[in-house]
Amino acid sequence: MKYAIGIDLGGTTIKGGLVSEFGEIILQTMINSEANSGAMVVAEKISEVIQDLFAFSQKNQIEISEIGIGVAGLIEHEKGVVHFSPNFEGWFDIPLVDLVRSSLTSPICDFPIVIENDGNAMAFGEFCHGGGASAKILVCMTLGTGVGGGIVIDGEIFRGSRNVGAEIGHTIIQADGALCGCGNYGCLEAYVGRDRIIERTREKIIKHGKKSILADQLDNLTPKIIADAADRGDDVAIEIFTETGRYIGVTATTIAHLLNPEMIIIGGGISAASEDLLFGPIRETVKRRAMDTNAESLRIVRAKLGNLAGLVGSAMLAMK
Amino acid sequence: MKYAIGIDLGGTTIKGGLVSEFGEIILQTMINSEANSGAMVVAEKISEVIQDLFAFSQKNQIEISEIGIGVAGLIEHEKGVVHFSPNFEGWFDIPLVDLVRSSLTSPICDFPIVIENDGNAMAFGEFCHGGGASAKILVCMTLGTGVGGGIVIDGEIFRGSRNVGAEIGHTIIQADGALCGCGNYGCLEAYVGRDRIIERTREKIIKHGKKSILADQLDNLTPKIIADAADRGDDVAIEIFTETGRYIGVTATTIAHLLNPEMIIIGGGISAASEDLLFGPIRETVKRRAMDTNAESLRIVRAKLGNLAGLVGSAMLAMK
Questions:
Q1: CB-based contact (8 Å) between B176 and chain A?
Q2: Is A152:A137 a contact under the CB 8 Å cutoff?
Q3: What is the DSSP letter of A60?
Q4: 3-state DSSP assignment of residue A93
Q5: Which of A27, A140, B111, B136 could lock A123 by a disulfide, CB 3.0 to 4.6 Å apart?
Q6: Inter-chain touch A260–B153, beta carbons under 8 Å
Q7: Mind telling me how many Å the CA of B2 is from chain A's nearest CA?
Q8: pLDDT, tens only, B118-130
Q9: Cα–Cα distance between A153 and A68 in angstroms, integer?
Q10: Rounded to whole angstroms, what are the CA distances from A37 to A42, A85, A102?
């Protein structure tokens, strides 16, 4: 059996795992990413995680020979460079692969290291061992603070002409709509990003005076708390998730018409809401809006690998 | 030099051409497509065009060995079947390649015949010899009665998982927007399809009482007449094209974020409007709305092959 090391470099933590070719994680580790200490320190932290996983693999006679790293942002995977990352302030054209390699000891410092955008890595993880196993055309969507994504076509990550494709959060769903963090108007993220879900809930209760069991915790709302209230039958919370599903359904319809994918996989914290609550309205919207063949060819499913998709995907990319 | 026969099968005419590998059309012919006479008759008409072109090629010692046909609709190119075509009422799973072949005489009845969706063929024509020569990722948009399109990725037509990708007219630009012919709301086509451009002009003049030199020809408006009025400085006509450009710019922004193409090529009757009138607002919208790298990597240009793109593209596909 083949194994690789997968790394998911986030703004707060570095997750690492020893992953088999079948997507099993046989050892997992996590440390603080020290995001504000500069690229050199972050690279050293990544190397630490890699060395630890490598030590474990040697002790257990597990052979590994590749390393994959997933990072949010504009990643120039051919050069091993982070051009820009929203999680690391001030990073600009950081040669992360070289930095990590320079902190590794022999023999692992000579192993191939691949780096990939986290949305792409997640999509590839789901393609290999998750909800989208072997789909011809697969689009992944992650719902969190922002809305990210990845596209896999015929088993290959689709990156666009300059590595900035699959920005699913910034597909426009309402031309004259809400202002988005990116400066544009009417992006999907301006409706279903984490903070916007909370704001929309507050608006319904404060501005429109709707009754809700959430009324006494308006300052500590999270999508999870809203989803729980919906599960307990709260009308405002149900409405919020129905609307959220419809907004996502509009983007899913556009994607169905443009790319005609076999599968859209939805992951990220907000997708943890119960099936009926979120996936129901998404599927119903696509069925109602999309043309027949485009709708019929599409399955919309929940991500299977959860927050380990990036780690698994990075390892799979490294093994490829 | 290599040559192939390209056929553009439309609802009213069949255009055929003898096309060199460099995209030159050395002989072009056109006949009525007899769209209402049934598939057998249409196939015979196509065969006639092919036989004529072949006879010419033999007389002039031009060697051809492939035939390509472009048709609107859902085309199953692997099977040579027209699953459905908006231009041919009642056609359902028509084995057009077999029908055409059965009407051809030897030796041309044994030549390979490929069939392709017309938007895909046009995109491939523009990729090979038009405005998008050799772009890594190319999206084509045709503005006419409807809004069609095609996508070429790394030199290959991108068809989607079931041949219904690149339905650019049905990307949603306004979730709660105008009703589209497809039954959905807020599709691009519901704003910039030929009839909608005319209706929007009439609305401005009749409903909103705006002054325009078009006021005395409201029953015979065409996009061409409106474009001419704009060129003569008519405010309503200029406004119509500015808005049309902005609507297209919204879809172009979504495409820039999703596919990060190197190039969007715009063709079709309505794109014949002068550069400033239509392309200005499209480019300005993308620049304002899209994220920096996505906007910078994208060039938006006019189709070069005009209404011959489908014919040239079909021939190129056949030669491939």
A1: yes
A2: yes
A3: T
A4: coil
A5: A140
A6: no
A7: 31
A8: 999 999 999 999 8
A9: 20
A10: 7, 15, 18
Q: What is the pLDDT of residue B272?
A: 86
Distance, CA of A306 to CA of A237 (rounded, Å): 23
How many angstroms away from the CA of A246 is the closest CA of chain B? Answer: 9
Q: Is A201 helix (H, G, I), strand (E, B) or coil?
A: helix
Q: What is the largest CA-CA distance in chain B?
A: 65
Apex B102 CA angle, B97 and B103, nearest 5:
105
Q: How far is B11 from chain A (nearest CA, A)?
A: 22
Calculate mean pLDDT across residues B292-312: 94
The CA-CA-CA angle for residues A158, A160, A161, to 5°, reads: 135
CB contact under 8 A, B250 and A163: no
Phi, psi of A41 (to 5 degrees): -65, -45
Query: What DSSP designation does A130 have?
Result: S
Place of tokens 């979504």: B254
pLDDT > 90? residue B134: no
* B83 vs B92: CA distance, rounded Å: 5
CA distance B84 to B94: 8
The 10s digit of each residue's pLDDT in B171-229 is 999 999 999 999 999 999 999 999 999 999 999 999 999 999 999 999 999 999 999 99
User: How far is CA A167 from its chain centroid?
Assistant: 11
What are A47-86's pLDDT values in tens digits? Answer: 999 999 999 999 999 999 899 999 999 999 999 999 999 8
Hey, is the C-beta of A77 within 8 angstroms of any chain B C-beta?
no
Q: Do B247 and A297 touch (CB under 8 A)?
A: no
Contact between residue B130 and residue B309 where contact means Cβ atoms under 8 Å apart:
yes
Q: What is the largest CA-CA distance in chain A?
A: 65
- With a CB cutoff of 8 Å and minimum separation 6, the contacts of A166 are A117, A119, A120, A123, A139, A140, A148, A149, A150, A151, A158, A159, A160, B258
Helix, strand, or coil here: A243?
helix
Residue B151 burial (CB < 10 Å; 0-12/13-18/19+)?
A: buried
Chain A residues with CB inside 8 Å of B173's CB? 172, 175
Going by the DSSP 8-state scheme, the letter that residue A168 receives in this structure is: G
ipTM of the complex: 0.95
What does the DSSP assignment read for A251-303?
A: HHHHHHHHH--SEEEEESGGGGS-HHHHHHHHHHHHHHHS-HHHHHT-EEEE-
Put simply, the chain A residues between 44 and 73 with a CB less than 8 A from any chain B CB are none
For residue A302, CA distances in Å to A82, A162, A273 come to 29, 29, 10
CB-CB under 8 Å, B258 with A259 = yes
CA B257, B258, B262, B268 torsion-angle sign: negative
Long-range pairs, A178-181, Cβ under 8 A, ≥24: A181/A146
Which of B92, B141, B151, B172 best tests the A interface by mutation, with the highest count of A CBs <10 A?
Answer: B172
Name the pTM for this structure. Answer: 0.95
